Amino acid sequence: MRGCVVGGGLAGSMLAWRLAHAGAGWQVDLVTGSAGSARGRVADATGASGGAVRCYETEPEQRWLAVASLVELLGSATLREWAGYRRTGSVYLRPAGTDRHAVAAEVADIERGLPGSARLVDGPELERAGWAGLH
User: Fold this and answer.
1) Which helix (H) or strand (E) holds 97?
2) Mean pLDDT computed over 1-27
3) What is the spatial distance between Cα 12 and Cα 32, in angstroms, rounded to a whole number?
4) N or C, fewer C-beta in 10 Å, the chain?
5) Which pLDDT score is estimated for 49?
6) Using an 8 Å Cβ cutoff, are 55 and 110 in contact?
7) Strand-pair partners of 3
8) Share in percent of the chain as helix, strand, coil (round to 5)
9) How far apart are alpha carbons 60 and 64 in whole angstroms?
10) How many CA atoms lie within 13 A of 24 on its CB side?
11) Is 123 helix (H, G, I), strand (E, B) or coil?
C-alpha cells in the first residue's frame, strides 16, 4: 500500500513513521515544506506554529495516549530528526483548590511512562521560580 503525508512537523512525521512501521507493506512519502517561502514553497506548520508534544492531560485516556506518543517520539532518533524535535520545559498550573492527591496520581501516571519527566511542586516553589502572584 502507498500513502503520502503532507507536512513534516510533529504530527506528520509521527503519522508517516507509524504507517511505515505498520507491517502492511506501506510505502510512505513524507512531503515537507522548505525552510522559507522562496519560489512559492511554504514552510511546515511546525516552523510557523512551534508544534508541541506534551504528556500532561487531565483525562486518563488522553494522558495515556499522549505519554505513549512521547515515548515513541523519544525512542527514535530518526523520528526526532524528521520532526525537528527540541526538548523544552513546561509548567502546568491547576486552579486553587484542586485535589493535590488527584494531581499527584496524574503525575505518577506520567512518571510510569517517562521517568524523571514530571514533578508536582507547591506554591512556594512556584514563587521561587518566578511564578509569584498567581491565583
Assistant:
1) none
2) 82
3) 9
4) C
5) 47
6) yes
7) 28
8) 45, 5, 45
9) 6
10) 7
11) helix
pLDDT for the residue 108:
92
Closest by CA position to 113, among listed 79, 75, 77, 64: 64
pLDDT at 101: 93
Would you state the cell numbers that stand for residue 74, as one nine-digit string?
523519544
Q: Beta-carbon neighbour count of residue 44 at 10 Å? A: 22
d(CA 92, CA 116): 16
Name 15's Cβ contacts closer than 8 Å, sequence gap at least 6: 5
89-133 confidence digits (pLDDT tens)? 778 888 878 899 999 999 998 899 889 888 888 888 888 988 887
**Model confidence over 47-69: pLDDT tens digits?**
544 455 677 788 888 888 888 88
Residue 5 main-chain phi, psi, to 5 deg: -110, 125
One-letter amino acid of 49: S
Q: Which three cell numbers stand for residue 72?
A: 515513541
Nearest-10 crossing angle of helices 60-74, 100-113? 30
